[in-house]
Amino acid sequence: xxxxxxxxxxxxxxxxxxxxxxxxxxxxxxxxxxxxxxxxxxxxxxxxxxxxxxxxxxxxxxxxxxxxxxxxxxxxxxxxxxxxxxxxxxxxxxxxxxxxxxxxxxxxxxxxxxxxxxxxxxxxxxxxxxxxxxxxxxxxxxxxxxxxxxxxxxxxxxxxxxxxxxxxxxxxxxxxxxxxxxxxxxxxxxxxxxxxxxxxxxxxxxxxxxxxxxxxxxxxxxxxxxxxxxxxxxxxxxxxxxxxxxxxxxxxxxxxxxxxxxxxxxxxxxxxxxxxxxxxxxxxxxxxxxxxxxxxxxxxxxxxxxxxxxxxxxxxxxxxxxxxxxxxxxxxxxxxxxxxxxxxxxxxxxxx
Length: 352
Prior knowledge:
Strand content: 15-25%
Order of helices and strands: HHHHEHEHEHEEHEHEEHEHEHEHEEE
Shape: elongated
Helix content: 40-55%
Distance between the termini: 34 Å
Radius of gyration: 23 Å
Number of helices: 13
Strand order of the largest sheet: 2-1-3-4-5-12-14
Number of strands: 14
């Protein structure tokens, strides 16, 4: 016999309206009461009637906020496109999405965007997080007040975010490190470059790369890690200086943005094809350099999906009361060469 919301209400000692609000995340319910109601519903195997649920959802309206940083970079343009696609699709389900962007990484801009989302009445937020304690505290505060937050592209694992969508950046760096290590197992100098040392995704990706080389490939000489701040001009100067000081550089690892600057410096030195360049993201500029032989190997991380998926996680949680099955939806990196370019941009593989 099907369990009813009335039975749940009686067992929880609350009204049917409170049960409805708790199970469908509409209206305010004390967290401990909502948790008790959900626990009773799970124990009894409660399932809302599909037809009734569809009718309820069709009559409801939702408002979500999405914040995407670093949109001046080609990869984050792909992430933004994914968010815009999901927002357009969810309009049919009564979801209004406010999308705010910022060209670089800036904590104040992110905090302001969150304030504006709350002022607009957003019930849930998805964002690419700045790696700062204040942002962790803000996410924790939002969670405590009943506003779920999904982070994407970069994680804040110590926060109370509902879910993270993106690559396991440490593992991604390790994969690149193993492949470059085998390439230079007999020795060679490698220059690692990342965008921001204070950005969790950028730093941890470079860390994974360097630790693999240092631990498993002792003959590889790893030069000091440099930061280009998502700037091709800075990456160009870093690479040009390194080449003048170490003309025998064999490989360059570009953990995020700035790869075009790296390729330009190598090309000016007449070393294109001789110095192996590994980088992340199958964005149009990187694909062009891969075709031309300026990049040896690149790793895709499902950039568009990273922007697309968070809105659906929030919709399932807010509208249907469905929590993510995992705290992180990791996207497995894809290895792209000039021989399998047809696979670039394909649907990502999700690691469970």
